Amino acid sequence: MSGLFALRRVVVKVGSSVLANAKGQLMPERLQRLADEIARCAKVDQQPVLVSSGAIACGMAKLGLTQRPKALAQLQACAAIGQGELMYLYTQAFGRHGLVTAQILLTQEDLAQQQRLRNAKQTLLTLLHRGVVPIINENDTVAVEEITFGDNDRLAALVAVAIEAQLLVLLSDVDGFLQGGRVVERIDQLGSAHHAAVQGSARQTTKGGMSSKLEAARLVGHSGIPMVIANGTKASVVSDVLAGRSVGTLFVPPRSRLTRRKWWIAFALRQPKGTIVVDAGAAAALTEQGKSLLASGVQQVKGTFEAGAFVAVADGQGAEVARGMTNFSSSDLSRIRGLRSADAARVMGEPRVKEVIHRDRLVLARELQHHGADDE
């Protein structure tokens, strides 16, 4: 990994498995050690951002729970109890180095809406320019199932892209990505074979796992940001990674990347508001010719949505072809589906009609895949 990391801005995500034991009990000495390493980054004019799990684990320990609750209200209660304690410990830990911390709690909605994304970005950049260490977590106390990030790996990846970081580091209790029981030092092409090698985590205090880490690598890779998975329980792990030593697994960004607009559609947005079913000709025009979606190719409209909504595009067999931002509401689109542009314009009472989804606001399903050699 030597020579890759002339870093100014780095996002470090610390998982619950690093900060808490298998029973969910926080280990303050490990939190202090990681804070010491991250503080050294700030002292040499780097701008570290910490994305930290552990609030729910802290709350679980306070309530005497040994398994992660499944009910949303119980999870929110654990987060409400644990978040304050977690931040108190971080404030003390970084304060020993003369550093100020700032707590930032986010939900999926904060990064799915462009204005709120810009606001979050400007807040983070302002803090970094003032030498403050931002400590970010998902706002579990108010998040509901539809808007949760799913895990802090995804949250960390979204933050890394938002602030244009040079590196994302995910710290867990594993040494890196394993294949055949051995750590893979470098992955240049993330593919389906890597996902097939993933096994589920048995820990009850964590929510993510290697699968979510591979998704984070794909997410930041499309913005040209490398990512490292390393064992956060080992001493000097952050210092070793930032020094470019061979620690953990390095994920190299792919050469083919999405534009910023397409990246936002592909990754910042999660749940389509509806589905537009297209005929075979339209599916081919989208996937093989790079065309926009026109009303003439629309066969069916599923769901209720407004103009500008994020929707999925599927073929007649139900396979997802693309995702994008529609120019029509579901009701208007139902009126003009299957019509040529001139006829659709007459129905809408306009001199001409827009594309249903312009190609610049559309991401193909294959662009959302892992871009590995085994996927092509």
Describe this structure in words.
This protein is an alpha/beta fold and 376 residues long. The protein has 2 domains: 9-257, Acetylglutamate kinase-like (Carbamate kinase, 3-Layer(aba) Sandwich), CATH 3.40.1160.10; 272-368, PUA domain (Archaeosine Trna-guanine Transglycosylase, Chain: A, domain 4), CATH 2.30.130.10. Helix content is 38%, strand content 18%. It has helices spanning 16-19, 28-43, 55-63, 72-95, 108-112, 114-129, 152-162, 192-196, 210-221, 237-242, 260-268, 280-289, 330-336, 341-348; strands at residues 9-14, 47-52, 101-106, 133-138, 167-172, 178-179, 182-183, 186-187, 227-231, 249-251, 275-278, 298-302, 310-314, 320-325, 362-364. Helix 3 packs across helix 4 and helix 7 packs parallel to helix 9. The longest helix is centred in the first third of the chain and has 24 residues, at 72-95. It is elongated and about 70 Å long. 42% of the residues are buried. Mean pLDDT is 86; it is low at 200-207 and 370-376.
